[in-house]
């Protein structure tokens, strides 16, 4: 006769219950999904879809303009000229990088939205024809 093993919480388990490990995979997949729109069919507004790239573009444009101002100050002012010459191009490049990343992000989101609409349309067609 086998002796039931004790689990970490102190309750006894039989060897058969060791094999039956419960899995929370389904619930963790739903909770850890990156886009909730896949699980819910509620339509989202344009701001909900595009708010991140718009913020990145806005911040990038602001940093780029700040870099332009600092770089132009190096031409006008003679005091601290080396500081302006070093920090101006840094802000220019950082702002330009964020601006371009945000502008590239917008067409990517549009393409994903079109693919998602096509996918939902094909799923509805498939369910219409095969669930009769």
How would you describe the overall organization of this protein?
Helix 3 (46-76) runs antiparallel to helix 4. This protein is mainly α and 132 residues long. Residues 27-33 have low confidence and may be disordered. The chain has a domain at 69-107. Strands 1-2 form a two-stranded antiparallel sheet. It has four helices and two strands; from the N terminus they run ββαααα. It is a multi-pass membrane protein.
Low-pLDDT stretches: 27-33
Mean pLDDT: 78
Number of helix segments?
4
Which structural category fits the helices and strands?
Answer: mainly alpha
Could you describe the largest sheet, including whether it forms a barrel?
Answer: 2 strands, antiparallel
Helix content: over 70%
Number of strands: 2
Give the CA-CA distance, first to last residue: 55 Å
Compressed to H and E, one letter per element, the order equals: EEHHHH
Strand order of the largest sheet: 1-2
Q: Which descriptor suits the 3D outline? A: rod-shaped
Tell me what portion of residues adopts beta-strand conformation. Answer: under 5%
CA-atom Rg in angstroms: 28 Å
Q: Could you provide a short overview of the structure?
A:
The protein has 132 residues and is mainly alpha-helical. It is rod-shaped and about 80 Å long.
